[in-house]
Amino acid sequence: MMSHAAYVFTSYGIATLTVLGLIAWVILDGRARRRELVELEASGVRRRSAGQASGETP
How many domains does the chain have? Predict the structure, then answer.
């Protein structure tokens, strides 16, 4: 049977790995979305919000 300390340390370890995994996922996904935006803007596609900021209508 596991001792109380082993249970606590295991739980903290799993929680830490989960949080670090989520942080890595958000960072990597953000980089991927930025790359996609750069590719789209390079191909001539513009964001809708960029046109409305200058007073243009869609």
Answer: 1
